[in-house]
Amino acid sequence: MNTIVSFFENQVKSEAEITRKFLKILPEDRYDWKPHPKSMSIRQLATHIAELPGWIPMGIKTDVLDFAAESYKPTPVKNNGDLLAVFEENQKKALESLSKTTDEFLQNNWTMRNGDQVYFTITKQEVIRMAMSQTIHHRAQLGVFLRLLDIPIPGSYGPSADEAGM
Question: I need a labelling partner for 20 at 20 to 30 A (CA). Which of 2, 45, 92, 153 fits?
Answer without folding.
Answer: 2
